[in-house]
Write a structure and sequence with these properties.
Helix content is about 50%, strand content about 10%. By secondary structure, the protein is α/β, with parallel strands linked by helices. The radius of gyration is 21 Å and the shape is globular. The two termini are about 30 Å apart.
């Protein structure tokens, strides 16, 4: 709580920017949202208040909505928006050229002690921070959507990111109640997307090769893998499925390697017949006009899971 009430700036007022604003304000920070469009900022503030009300109804907001919302404001001037901020969270569209322009603009007005964090989901920070005067203050802090219910944040430093900037960002994310992981080096897709893409591509192959239906693939994850993976990762899973990891590898390693050797062929997704097949299957489950309703249902289930996890007993290793 010692640095609460300090200033944090969110640059970009789309879905992720609004979520970041909520998280920072909930932790006690004064939050300034910056966008180039006044109407966009007004819409963002209205949306943030509505989402805060949802958090409060779920029991995930310890203070009254108006108390938290009062910490959030907007500013159309980038220079004044970032002035005095301890942390800037960039949330502009996921294009290298846009990120480069944004970070060059930030570099011209930011203080020497301000952390510059990008919400990029897959672009390494070295691609848009090289050559900046303040490049040692830059890194990626990638949230998972929606971040107020899924706490993982991927922290990705550039080769020139200062160690103190990295440590401050990890500490801030923990203070927010998030679960940061730190990459030791830049890699395409970071961690979560590399894991996610591996599952998506194998699911794609299983359907494309006629092994099973799209519905059965989704069931295999939602009623199988996903249940364990919602509270433990793959290494702990295999650790508990045998007498330790070495024993698991002795029992199942050769077969796993053989199966994975069959999974090397990446399939074309864009414009494919399989994409059309999967689209048709999903529209049977959820008509397109009800996608927003289904997203709302998803977020309500994630909120309920977050409440459950907060109250669940913790495993003590000693």
């Amino acid at each position: 709580q010692g640095i609460n009430m300090a200033k944090i700036t969110v640059v970009g007022s789309g879905i992720i920017g609004r979520c970041w604003a909520m998280l920072f304000a909930r932790a006690g920070y004064n939050v300034v949202i910056h966008d180039i469009q006044e109407a966009q900022m007004a819409a963002a503030l209205a949306s943030v208040k509505t989402q805060l009300e949802g958090l409060h109804a779920s029991g995930l907001l310890p203070e009254p909505v108006d108390t938290v919302f009062a910490r959030i404001s907007s500013d159309g001037s980038l220079a004044s928006a970032v002035k005095g901020a301890v942390h800037v969270q960039e949330c502009v569209p996921e294009k290298v050229s846009i990120k480069i322009d944004m970070f060059q603009a930030l570099d011209a007005v930011v203080d020497d002690g301000t952390v510059l964090a990008s919400s990029s989901s897959c672009i390494p920070p070295s691609q848009f921070t090289d050559g900046l005067k303040h490049k040692s203050q830059c890194l990626v802090a990638h949230p998972i959507n929606p971040p107020h219910y899924t706490p993982l944040v991927e922290i990705v430093p550039a080769p020139w990111t200062d160690a103190d900037v990295l440590a401050r960002t990890v500490a801030l994310m923990k203070q927010l109640g998030q679960a940061p992981i730190t990459l030791k080096k830049e890699v395409n897709g970071f961690v979560l997307n590399r894991l996610q893409y591996a599952v998506i591509m194998e699911a794609w192959r299983l359907v494309e090769d006629g092994v099973c239906s799209p519905e059965d693939v989704d069931t295999a994850v939602s009623q199988g893998l996903g249940l364990r993976y919602s509270f433990m990762g793959p290494f702990e899973t295999i650790d508990l499925n045998a007498d330790g990891i070495v024993d698991y590898c002795e029992r199942y390693g050769e077969n796993i390697t053989a199966v994975c050797q069959e999974q090397a062929d990446a399939r074309q997704m864009k414009g494919s017949q399989t994409a059309a097949l999967l689209e048709a299957a999903q529209r049977v489950q959820v008509p397109k006009e009800r996608l927003a309703e289904r997203r709302k249902w998803r977020d309500e289930r994630l909120a309920a899971l977050a409440v459950h996890r907060a109250g669940a007993p913790k495993w003590e290793s000693s």
